[in-house]
UniProtKB/TrEMBL annotation:
This is Multidrug transporter subunit MdtD. NCBIfam families: efflux_EmrB, PRK10504.1. Its main location: membrane. Residues 1-10 have a biased composition (Pro residues). Residues 28-476 form the Major facilitator superfamily (MFS) profile domain. SUPFAM superfamilies: MFS general substrate transporter. The chain crosses the membrane at residues 66-86, 93-113, 119-140, 152-174, 180-201, 213-232, 238-261, 273-294, 300-326, 347-365, 371-391, 411-437, 449-471. It comes from the Bacteria.
Length: 488
């Protein structure tokens, strides 16, 4: 039986005013869904291909984290501006440009000959990818009537949930049957068809009353995010001196503080500080930022561990990620019942510690570990990690209301992408530091470096449970209406 999702029913009898035909609306839904799938797929598809990329580009496999960081950090930087661009220039023009830039970036990535070139081209790809979901979601919101918005958005979200799950396996399979270049080349024909379909079927809605963009606040946030990323990764990736790292950390802190002062003074900041008066939003946002550092590092670390230290092929490493995805899907509904019974505070504190312990358990990995035990370990991690995401995300969004939904969702998306970037940054820095202590990295001696790295990210994650301890024990009701695309 086919499991392909069916778009919400579109009947011309329900239209009360002239607008796009039911056929155009259906095509638009598939367009947005495909764009979301491409964006999320490329956040994980490269993970299993990193060793193959390193061999092709003449680099060490343990120094390829910048390929992942460049994409996720660029998306974090571009998310705040995408909605404003769609309001100002129109959804069709911006969505078309997003697919075009993403496709060009993918083609450039496939033709990169050095690591630096690949990183620059991943930035181009990230610029396009960052606009696919927010602009597509905005197009759905403005085109569909209120009673059909949630079913339409749920349909759009399904491929986006599938993308990260199949990414590692698909990446490993493409490396096996062809080469790592094809993890980018597969985007090109899809992008070409998407551009044509967007030009024909995407409605061109815009907001004629769009105000001025908060450029000052945006630049402060961008400089702060980039500075902290370079500070954490620059020492190991670029050989930046300790004094420069300290300066970058101070600069990032100064920028975030300056944004707070800026947001109080200007009439329409990009992210109003009033959002942080919502206690559940503040705790959820901080929890997402710090707890996801560990979770964001695992899709990067596990395939490297399997290939470099345990001798798996790229395809085999990708297959080993399937238990993580399957267990994650199986446990998503369980967390709602647990929250209703035990409260957000109890569930998140206990589950955060459990996630940290499961990350640290990979420090016990050995070459003679039975396959069934490794599969169980990956599945248990996938299950508790998925429960963590669902609980944190519903907590963050549950009390936003309609007034803060737009800016709150954008800030939440930014924090998600930033934490993914920081997760890989921290993991790469730790792994490089520990391998440097051992002086010479081979398959025989890289395992202790991975052990120490998994232990550190596990401790970081477990310690973030303190953030959720600030919640009231009486908060038990999950969010009634949350954006399905934000539940991963």
């Amino acid at each position: 039986m086919s499991t392909t999702p069916t778009p919400p029913a579109l009947s011309p009898d329900t239209e009360t005013a002239p607008g796009p035909s039911p056929r155009s609306l259906t095509v638009m839904l598939w367009l947005v869904a495909t764009g979301f799938f491409m964006q999320t797929l490329d956040s994980t598809i490269v993970n299993t291909a990193l060793p193959a990329m390193a061999t092709s580009l003449g680099e060490l496999p343990l120094r390829m984290q910048s390929v992942v960081i460049a994409y996720s950090l660029t998306m974090a930087v571009m998310i705040p501006v995408s909605g404003w661009l769609a309001d100002k220039l129109g959804t069709r023009r911006v969505f078309f440009s997003a697919i075009l830039v993403f496709t060009i970036g993918s083609l450039l990535c496939a033709n990169a000959h050095t690591l630096n070139q690949l990183v620059y081209f991943r930035i181009v790809q990230g610029v396009g990818g960052a606009m696919l979901l927010p602009v597509g979601r905005l197009a759905v919101l403005r085109t569909f009537p209120a009673e059909r918005y949630l079913p339409a958005l749920s349909f759009v979200a399904i491929p986006g949930l599938i993308g990260p799950l199949i990414g590692p396996t698909l990446g490993g399979w493409l490396v096996k049957i062809a080469s790592w270049h094809w993890i980018f080349l597969i985007n090109v024909p899809v992008g070409i068809v998407g551009c044509i379909a967007t030009f024909i079927f995407m409605p061109d809605s815009r907001n004629e009353h769009t105000g001025r963009f908060d450029l000052g606040g945006y630049l402060l946030l961008v400089v702060g995010m980039v500075a902290i990323s370079f500070a954490l990764d620059g020492r190991t990736e670029f050989g930046i001196q300790h004094a420069t790292v300290l300066v970058l950390l101070i600069l990032s802190l100064a920028c975030f503080v300056a944004y707070g002062l800026h947001a109080v003074r200007v009439p329409a900041p990009i992210f109003p500080l009033e959002l942080f008066k919502i206690h559940t939003f503040s705790v959820g946002l901080l929890g997402n930022l710090f707890a996801r550092i560990g979770s964001g590092s695992m899709p990067y670390l596990i395939p490297l561990l399997l290939q470099i230290s345990l001798g798996y092929s790229a395809f085999e490493a990708g297959l080993m990620m399937l238990p993580v995805a399957a267990a994650g899907m199986a446990t998503k509904r369980l967390v709602t019942k647990l929250i209703t019974r035990y409260s957000y505070r109890s569930v998140l504190m206990a589950n955060t510690i459990l996630v940290g312990l499961m990350m640290a358990s990979f420090a016990l990995t050995s070459t003679d570990q039975p396959l069934w035990l490794r599969v169980v370990q990956l599945a248990v991690f996938g299950g508790v990690n998925s429960m963590q995401f669902t609980a944190m995300n519903t907590l963050t969004l549950k009390d936003l209301g309609t007034g803060g939904a737009s800016s709150g969702n954008s800030l939440f998306s930014l924090v998600q992408m930033l934490s993914m970037s920081l997760g890989v940054t921290v993991a790469g820095a730790l792994l490089t530091t520990f391998t440097g202590i051992m002086h010479r990295v081979t398959a025989a001696n890289s395992l202790p470096a991975f052990h120490a790295t998994f232990l550190c990210v596990g401790i970081i994650t477990a310690c973030s449970s303190w953030i959720f301890a600030q919640l009231s024990p009486d908060i038990r009701t999950p969010a009634k209406k949350t954006d399905p695309s934000e539940r991963t």
